[in-house]
């Protein structure tokens, strides 16, 4: 059963949202069955109240296995699109049909293959799905402000460092979170390069509603690489 946005926000306030994702190129991706519900179950046992995941299969199976609300997205590349997180209405339709409690999408100002702006795309989504909660994945302060003004429900710093024009730092973008918390009137979700518990706590101390942690919890290859890099 889908949760309301208010219920999700109440459950996740000052907490961790665990991202459980495995792309076909990653070791934990399995064609025959998804392993992500097991990751999500482990996160739930640790106290997690909401999961972020990619693909219709994982949205549906994680909801079935845990009963937790899910922030759903679909990573798909198209010619002419710089964005790949829920880039078109096709992905929006699929996530709505899968009963994603919140739909996450790229809200950067990068090129869109159909010639539309992100403002126009968000307007199209709102016309078709006026009540679906939207999470804007942004890379800069300006993109976050713009997404808020376009009517999204949450803004996440997911893409900071992953666009050519955003700061390239090894860790989280604390400054971006701090600025957005002060200036937007919707919850700010801190996400991106949160590798350690003290970084997550700092994000919450800065005023983030919640922190998304993915690779540091659910990607063993990335975790192992971090250890090997540290001792080299």
Summarize the structure.
This protein has 232 residues and is an alpha/beta fold.
- In whole angstroms, the N-to-C terminal distance is 48 Å
What is the percent of helical residues?
40-55%
Radius of gyration: 17 Å
In DSSP terms, counting alpha (H) and pi (I) runs of 4 or more, how many helices?
10
Q: What summary fits the major beta sheet? A: 8 strands, parallel, barrel
Strand content bin: 5-15%
What would you note in describing this structure?
This protein is of the alpha/beta class and 232 residues long. It contains 10 helices and 8 strands. It has an 8-stranded parallel beta barrel with strand order 1-2-3-4-5-6-7-8, surrounded by 7 helices. β6 (154-156), α7 and β7 (188-191) form a beta-alpha-beta unit. α2 (36-46) packs across α3.
